[in-house]
Amino acid sequence: MAATARALSPTPQKPAALGVKPNAADKQLWLCAYFPDLTLTALHLDLGQAVASAMPYKGQTRLHTVSAPARQAGVESGMTPAAALALCPGVSIHNRDPFAERQVLQQLAEIALDFSPWVSLDQPDCLLLEIRSCLTLFGGIERLQDKLRTAWQTTRHRPLIAISPTPTASNLLARLSLETTITAPQALCSALGPLPIAALALDDRLLHRLLRTGIRQLTDLWRLPRDGLAKRYGAGLLQQLDRLAGQQTQILQAFHSPPCFQASREMPIELERIEHFFPAIEQLAGEFAAFLKTRDATTLGITLELQHHGRPATCLALDFRAGNRDPKHWCGLLSEKLERSPLPAPVLAIGLLSAAIVPFQPERFSLFHDHEKPDSNAEWQAVLDQLQARLGHKALKFPGTQADHRPERAMIDQPNWLTANPDLAPRPLWLLANPEPVRLNGLSLLSSAERIESGWWDDQPIRRDYHSAQDQRGRKLWVYRDLNARHQWFLHGLFG
Amino acid sequence: MNATSLDQLLRAQTGIWRGLHSQNQNWRTIASGFAELDALLPGGGWPLGGVLEILSPLGIGELSLLLPAMASLSQSKRWIAWIAPPQQVYAPALLQAGIDASYVLVADCRQEADIPWSLEKLLRSGRCGMALAWPRRLSDHQIRRLQLAAEAGSALAVLFPKQRSGSGYTALRLEVRPAKTGLALHILKARGSLQRASLTLAL
């Protein structure tokens, strides 16, 4: 009986053959993978060349990360680009792209999800994995680490890996390029002790104050009385130390890979006519709608893949203007697309995929249903979807205005509306995208000049005198005299 | 039976055509914003649920005829759709005309065949109050389809054809020419009226 109870116990005994002796099994063990060259590799730069990434710092551009060849030439992070170019004339400097970095981290996190269910992106430039729970599965820390490195080998990103019982300590060690493994919580303080306090994320003033009092290493800090430390240097420092030592629990957010849907149907024979294979599309759409409904989600776009024999598949992509989960609407749009685009070959298999899945947002109704029909907005969005599906992705525009005196800049393609300026002279309904040179004879000017002189702060300054005019055909024109271009006259708009 | 009750009786009979008296129309209209023009149009305004054809050169002020109606439609939360406009629609001018421009939509059509299709979709939706288009030429049956769609959505379709067509299905056809003091309008055809009127509007 005792044997069965042991076999069913939730924390199975670790096999003694493992090289690392696991300590208290209820504690966590955090693996930190820090990517020192992430800012460079995210920009697809070649680390074998002299390259550097730059970012604004206190109003100046400073280098952030430097590749090894550039470092050999004396370039360091924190330099200005001018200094770097003086030291190493061949260095190419690129601005950081935080969005691309985030995307790369997410890709890497998806790979890491094969190794641990708890992957966190909470700390910048690194991934944190809780590995205590999955050590048995992968056969120990060493093997897990090797497998993880191999899995990341296919990407261009090389990590520094440190393992310790607290996420903060792992992060600190990895950032200092100390690829160590500390499994016992008791060993943590002594292992971290000799590290310089500059490694902590402290602001410069606090760091200098600590250094002036003779505190150089973390052990010096741990030796000081806690209450005095908090009183002199603030509770933030104490909190950091506690997190490092695992005396304060830190809960990290788990990363979940974004949901996606993929389903396909094989056709019994090759089918040519739309009405023969369309029922399969309807089935797939129904499956996807059910998938969305159980997750209380909607989709922003779907892709239909039609496989042919010995040819690349035909892809039809639909983008929706708002989250949608109505299979009839999709099928309507898809059948219209299919009817308008002849297929190159008979269809062997059909696949439906979607990665743009977003939470469902119910339509807001007014309490009394006074004016609008309850479903009118959804219907209108469906009409716009139909137009967009046929006319193209950028065919629908919702013109808007912005506060700029330059006529061509006063209009934007976003629904952003300012109130009309009552003092503004009448504007034409048609604006020519490119002003046309015009001769003044034959035109009669109807208004006095409206001087528009603006834009000296960016690179497109204008100095123009605008008039409304009428030509011999009776058209009402909006013309200007360009004071920058030898007083030449241009036609800029038509009063429709 | 006095004259008013006789008139009411006749008006109730939709099957009786009353010639020059335009009161027997039963479609909705929207005031054009020009009193002289409204007096000549059957029902006292642009027909909501009909195709309006305007024959005019571009840029003489033909759109200013429609601006007051656009403003009142957009303020009652109905969309104004511009389909394949010949130039950029300049938003600040719409704002000056008092149009609630969060209800303005511009659709670019690369193919001529997309224009009547888009028009029909928008007109039929019921949310669109006015749809303007600049087709090269539309056939009779296309105009008939647009007329039906406009009736279904009680919307006004405005066509500025580049070539003259002789379709009998438009509800209203105007010819606009520049005049010294404004615009010269000729009503070539108006559904529900045999009148062929001309007037000059000062804009």
Helix percent band of chain B = 25-40%
Intertermini distance of chain A: 93 Å
CA-based shape of chain B: globular
The gyration radius over C-alpha positions of chain B equals: 17 Å
Distance between the termini of chain B: 46 Å
Number of helices of chain B: 6
Total helical elements of chain A: 16
User: Pair with the most extensive interface?
Assistant: A-B, 47 and 43 residues
Task: Describe the sheet with the most strands of chain B.
Answer: 8 strands, mixed
How big a fraction of the residues of chain B is strand?
25-35%
Globally, the shape of chain A reads extended
The fraction of residues in strands of chain A falls at 25-35%
Count of spatially separate domains of chain B: 1
Structural class of chain B: alpha/beta
Residue-averaged pLDDT of chain A, rounded?
84
Radius of gyration of chain A, CA atoms, in whole angstroms: 32 Å
Identify the CATH architecture of the largest domain in chain A. Answer: 2-Layer Sandwich
Give the CATH class of the largest domain in chain A: Alpha Beta
CATH architecture descriptor name of chain B? 3-Layer(aba) Sandwich
Helix content of chain A: 25-40%
Domain UmuC (chain A): 60-173
InterPro entries (chain A): DNA/RNA_pol_sf (IPR043502), Rev_trsase/Diguanyl_cyclase (IPR043128), SulA_CellDiv_inhibitor (IPR050356), UmuC (IPR001126)
Keywords (chain A): DNA damage
Family (chain A): Belongs to the DNA polymerase type-Y family.
